[in-house]
Every structure is written in structure tokens, then in C-alpha cells.
Design a protein that fits this description.
By secondary structure, this protein is an all-alpha fold. About 70% of the residues lie in helices and about 0% in strands. It is globular. Keywords: Cell membrane, Cell shape, Membrane, Transmembrane, Transmembrane helix.
Amino acid sequence: MNNVVASNSIRFIVLLLVQVVICNNINFLGYINPYIYIIFIFLFPIRENRLILLLTSFLLGMLVDMFSDSGGVHAAAAVCLAYTRPILLKTSFGMLYEHQSIKFSTTEIGSIITYITFGTIIHHFVLFSLEIFNITSILLILKKTLFSSIFTIILSVLIIILFSRNRK
């Protein structure tokens, strides 16, 4: 139990620091930004209490907001992602989720990519919708969601594959 708490605490801090120090300074073409802090939400243990996930996601989002001066949009998007995570897990992993036996180090890569793709698109759409908050700018919201999602998905999958143990 202590090992799980320690590894999640380290993951929380490292992803927050990488997001704030490196990723917040990346801005391709004015609208492509990676948001890799959501890897924490993706990899949070499935058997843990859902309330803990929601609270830590809120805390993570608020800390990113404080460093980014973005007024709460990351916190809202992170909580939305954490809230929809059980649906994403069931959709992507099916019976593995039903039996609470998902291990990212041993599951097939297609399921992981599906899970990360749907989660990233949900997170980014909520994030950019709240950031822009203007229905007349829906094309800009969709464009930012699409391109930032592609960049975030690629980085997230690479990071998860590189740092997961026992990859086939």
C-alpha cells in the first residue's frame, strides 16, 4: 500500500513539474500545446477510491492553473476526465476492467491508445471550451482540441510505454 502511495506521489510531482517547466513553454503554431499532466489521471490505480482520484485530479489541475495563470480551466478539465474515466476504461478494456485486472504493462497497445485517445480528446475539448468560452469560436476550439490532442496522445503513449515495466 505504501509503495502505491509513494509511486503515485512521485508521479504526481514529476508530471506537474514537467508540465509547468517544459510543456507550458511549448507552443507550436500558436495553438498546439502538450498537456502530459493528464497521464497521472490515466495511470491512477483502478482499485483506489474514486473520490481520491477526483480530489487529486482537482488538486493537480489547480496547481497547473496556478502556475499557468489560467483561472481554473485545467482543474475543471482534469475533474471531468477523472469523472469519465470509468466509462473510458470499460469502453477501452471491456472485461479486464470488469474484473479490475488491468495492468498497463501487460495489456495490448491498441487498448491503451484507445483509452488515452478518448480521454485526451474529452479533456482537451473541455479545457479549450472553457478557455475560449465563445460558441462562435467553435472551429478554433475544435482545431485546438484536435492538434493539441494529437501531440498529447503521441507524447503520452511514448511516456507510458517507456516507463512501464514488463512490456511485451
